């Protein structure tokens, strides 16, 4: 039997609503971040994230789960943790609100919090 580690990601209570928001985030954020509009973009994007329990991906309170599952004896398996896959997918979807010029500056940064 395998279980996820103790630092596993717990879905916000509004998971279905958040999933909808993430899949449509490009349509909900009218201002894409560029070099000139950071305050406007930040206000808009922060409100959207807070309203849908997603701000934790940016401020670090939605911790990334362990990538691999562990068994009852805390032995790490080679099986990928489904919670990790889900967390990573949701985290990466937040970058769709950036312009090409900003995207070129964040190449290599791994998470929304790092960005």
Automatic annotation (TrEMBL):
Highest taxon in the source lineage: Eukaryota
The name this protein goes by in its record: Uncharacterized protein
Native organism: Persea americana (Avocado)
Origin organism lineage: Eukaryota, Viridiplantae, Streptophyta, Embryophyta, Tracheophyta
